[in-house]
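Summary: Need help interpreting a holo structure output

Steps to reproduce:
1. Submit the protein chain below together with the SMILES for zinc ion.
2. Request a joint structure prediction with the ligand placed.
3. Inspect the structure token block that comes back.

Expected: a single structure record containing both the chain and the bound molecule.
Actual: see attached output.

Input attached:
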Amino acid sequence: MLTALKKIFEHKCPICNEPLLSVNETLCCTKACPEGHYKEESYCSLGVRIVYDGLK
Ligand SMILES: [Zn+2]
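--- attached output ---
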């Protein structure tokens, strides 16, 4: 569990370990694996983070 969290904070894909691609928009910051394994959306103004992992 701790290992998984650490990988998220390092902004690498937990599946293939590639660096995540980030897109910053006004209300939403998106980080995604270039291979499509993982996607994370952060809505900073709302304090909400949505993680999509295990994408096939
Ligand atoms: Zn990946």
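--- end attachment ---

Reviewer comment: The beta strands are 21-24, 29-32, 38-43, 48-53. Residues 2-53 form one domain.
Status: needs-info
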